[in-house]
Design a protein that fits this description.
By secondary structure, the chain is mainly alpha-helical. Helices cover 78% and strands 1% of the residues. It has a two-stranded antiparallel ribbon. Helix 3 packs antiparallel against helix 4 and helix 14 runs antiparallel to helix 15.
Length: 452
């Protein structure tokens, strides 16, 4: 794919998934009434998608590494669009849940490919800018989602929500199939074999983990037990197999591991904080849903605004200081919200959350994708997406458990989760972009002076 189409496809694919998640939340009450579904059944429209997508992200990334990211992206977009159209026509809740599983499978295919295509199309020292555009689009989609969803549900009805992304998905998927100009890292015909046993064990581990966290009671305990056993079996298998699903150069890299951990912690803190604040705004402060949504606008604005500044920060001070400061900023926003009741204080708290998370998203993702070899870019992208799927589930589960102690306590604990990730940023590289130089032998040296 040519570079311009690659950027458009990557940004649109990521934004489409973000938009789908936010508009569904608005549509669920209307969907429940229309189809006569129970609350548990409606919850499964979200749970089924989460389990499917979280289980398959890493394996989908490996498929892109082996067979080409544009090809896997095209399959994911076309399937995602078709599943969305199917949900809009679904006759009952069973069909909706089944098609949400399919949507999760195709979403898992396209998400790592959006990062893998960028890694293949752009030189490592020019990745920060397209990643910033991608993050800004995600923030904008997340902000517009509730507004678009509310307008569509109030007008044509909940089915129109699922038609929103059908045409863009089909157009971009078809374009990716037609434009097959080879890009660096696009095909790896002689790459490692697909580790199917490892993929199954990892899918079982992550699927059970996500399901147990959104469930309750005995289901949670059983799910965590199965996830732990499958996780141990996966680690043993990966150590013994000749072609592991997770290449040692990716999972064994301290900067990549640290960046993934920061993404889990910050996304958990952000999602848990937003969950708690929804109750604070509507239950404690007596605001209606629209008024509550307006209080949160500074978060989306600052997330979009922070993204284009991140490449500048990376050039000036490097990943270590950029991610560390942004993580601390997010923690500070959570602490401020734990005491905030007035409009100005709430706006400042949400703005700090948005600025912090928007910066972390770009900078930490830049570390994960850039430090991985082009032949493992899909796996790296899959791990990044997995972190951003597991983190929010953990955050909401923690927030739910802490709400009994009071919203202020819950918000302080979530802020502490983000703060505890700050020391991890010491493992991140220094001035990644600014200090790129050519060695005497013609190799490229990064900010730590280690040859890539």
């Amino acid at each position: 794919m040519n570079r311009r189409l690659t950027l458009v496809s990557s940004v649109a694919g990521a934004a489409l998934v973000a938009l789908d998640g936010t508009v569904l939340t608005v549509a669920q009450p209307s969907l429940q009434r229309s189809l006569g579904a129970s609350y548990a059944e409606v919850q499964w429209t979200s749970t089924a998608y989460l389990v499917a997508v979280a289980s398959l992200l890493v394996f989908a990334g490996r498929l892109g590494d082996r067979y080409g990211h544009p090809r896997v992206f095209a399959l994911g977009m076309l399937g995602f669009g078709a599943a969305s159209a199917g949900i809009a026509l679904a006759p009952d809740i069973g069909w909706v849940i089944g098609l949400r599983v399919a949507q999760g499978v195709f979403g898992a295919l396209l998400q790592p490919a959006t990062l893998g295509m960028l890694r293949s199309a752009y030189p490592p020292d020019r990745l920060a800018a397209p990643l910033a555009v991608r993050t800004g689009a995600i923030g904008l989609a997340a902000a517009l989602g509730p507004l678009l969803g509310g307008a569509l549900v109030s007008g044509p009805g909940w089915r129109a929500v699922f038609l929103l992304g059908v045409v863009p998905a089909l157009v971009l998927g078809t374009a990716a199939l037609v434009d097959r100009a080879p890009a660096r890292g696009d095909r790896v015909p002689s790459g490692p074999a697909l580790d199917l046993p490892g993929a199954l064990l990892l899918a079982l581990t992550l699927g059970c983990l996500v399901h147990s966290l959104v469930a309750s009671g005995a289901v949670t305990a059983a799910g965590l037990g199965v996830a732990a056993l499958a996780g141990v079996a996966f680690v043993r298998h990966e150590r013994r197999t000749a072609d592991p699903l997770l290449p040692p150069g990716v999972i064994g890299s301290p900067p990549i591991t640290a960046a993934l951990a920061v993404l889990v912690a910050t996304s958990a803190a952000l999602s848990g904080t937003l969950f708690v604040e929804t109750y604070v705004l509507q239950r404690d402060l007596g605001l209606d849903p629209l008024q509550s949504a307006l209080r949160g606008v500074p978060l989306a604005v600052m997330m979009v605004a922070a993204a284009p500044w991140c490449p500048v920060l990376l050039r000036k001070v490097g990943s270590r200081w950029t991610v560390g400061a942004a993580t601390a900023l997010l923690a500070l926003g959570g602490l401020l919200l734990s005491r905030a009741t007035g409009t100005l204080a709430l706006a400042c708290g949400f703005a700090l959350l948005g600025a912090g998370f928007g910066t972390v998203m770009v900078a930490a993702t830049h570390v994960v994708v850039r430090r991985a070899e082009a032949t493992a870019a899909g796996v790296a992208g899959g791990l990044q997406q997995t972190a951003l799927n597991i983190g929010p589930v953990l955050g909401v589960a923690a927030a739910t458990a802490l709400m009994g102690a009071g919203p202020s306590v819950a918000l302080c604990v979530l802020a502490a989760v983000a703060a505890m990730a700050v020391p991890l940023t010491r493992l991140l590289p220094g001035r990644d972009v600014a200090s790129l130089t050519r060695s005497a032998e013609g190799g490229v040296l990064d900010g730590d002076h280690a040859p890539r």
